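Continued from yesterday's entry.
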Amino acid sequence: MIEPGTIEDLARRIGALLPPGLDDAKRDVEKNLRAVLQSWFDRLDLVTREEFEVQKAVLAKTRAKLEALEQQLAELEGE
């Protein structure tokens, strides 16, 4: 899930590109962009940076355990 602030920021930035005096159009564009961006990001099935970092740590720990087991096995086979 992407952070809601990111979608709001993107919509505001794109809306800011519209010329001044088109405030109603600007609000409509921003509103529609928010909906489109949220839908698009939801379909991508994204994870947060925090979730990614947790999984990265789990993978590193698992890899370290696997390497230790491989070393133990090599020592046992060498005896």
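--- second protein ---
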Amino acid sequence: MEVTVKSPETEEVFRDSLKLRYKVLREPLGQPRGSEEDSLDLVAIHAVALNPEGKVVGTGRIHSNSGRQAQIRLMAVEPELQGKGIGKQLLDFLEGKGKQMGAKYVRVHARESAKAFYAANGYNDVSEGKTLFDTVKHTWMRKEIA
């Protein structure tokens, strides 16, 4: 699908990305509004995928954990558009930002349902992760980018 991936340029686009994050990642788990945000939103580099009409159809972010390590989090794509390459475009954009930060590798705390996506994009399992909200099992995965 044709999308434009970039950092959100307006507060409205950023807010729309948070709405999508909530819709895809938190609402299905019965979590309250606001649970889709955290303090790292203030320091992270955000990405949005916009359809030709300018609607946010995908989102994600990357932040530095140390000079060598960056972490991608909170990736979400509209459910009806998953599997159409939008996630890969977001991932490529965010990994590029990680390289610009000077990171040597990127890690993700991948949901079980997203592990195959990350593996197909060069990420390797590192260790078992946390179980989010007592129901969503995660795995730490890593990819060398430099």
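The longest helix spans residues 11-26. The longest strand covers residues 56-64. Will compare against the first tomorrow.
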